[in-house]
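User: I'm writing a short report section on ligand binding and want a predicted complex to refer to. Could you take this sequence and fe (ii) ion and write out the structure as tokens? A short remark afterwards would be nice.
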Amino acid sequence: MNRNKLVEKYSINKNRYYNRDKIFKEKWKGVIMINLEKAEKNFKDYLKDYDLNNGNIKLKIKHTYEVMKKSEYISKGLNLNKEDIDLSKLIALLHDIGRFEQVKQTNDFIDSTGFEHANYGVKVLFEENLIRKFIDNDKYDNIIKKAIYNHNKYKIEDNLSEKEILHCKIIRDADKLDNFRVKETEEFKNIFPSKYNPDTINYESISPKVYEDIMNHKCIKLDDRQTQIDFWICVIGFIFDLNFNISKQYIKEKGYIDILIDRIEYKNKETKEKMEQIRKCAKQYLEEE
Ligand SMILES: [Fe+2]
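Assistant: Sure. The structure tokens for the complex follow:
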């Protein structure tokens, strides 16, 4: 082969390999968008500004990682693809990012006092552009934003895309499932930072509106909760807002209705009777497909 032919052959191959490499990189840029390892590392960095010895902060960190597991459980149960499974986990990692500032500023978790943690999370992530620390590409920004904004609202807002609705539903279910774990395992003083009163909890009554709503399979509106027992019933009422059958099954299999109801000793006769009605009503609902 003479020298010219050799140079020609080399340049054809060079271009071919260059193009193949370019196509390969483009292709994978489209697929590997969510680096959960990097996101978790940057989440830990974000937490450096908060008191990691504070019981409320600890509770929310543990909750975040547990919600990630529950989102994965639901997404896999729904047979979603890897991209959506990873996206649901990333949303779970970030869904309560506003909680840490809320605890720092108010030492409480009550949104109705003025600090709305989901709205705050959306603000720091998207207005202050913190989101780019957790995911390089902006392809999923709207889905993440809508899922975080809607995760704690009474209802999912209207006019969302199919994908946005799907991820809103997953995070709402995963968050609720882990709330049952928190209510089973945490001390009351951490669960109700400002409301807990060990001297009164066993003697309290249920507010009429709360009882009526739960017996009608309705979620309890946060502002309707007056007593500590109302707060407790509100958690039980989460079952009426679960979106997926796999989530209902999870609550049933873990026996969370009995666990929660039996965690308090009801010394008020009327409350005791009503709690038995709630137990029956909730368990019946979980049996329905
Ligand atoms: Fe949460």
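A remark for your report: The pocket of fe (ii) ion is lined by residues 63, 67, 95-96, 175 (CB under 6 Å). The two ends are 75 Å apart (CA to CA).
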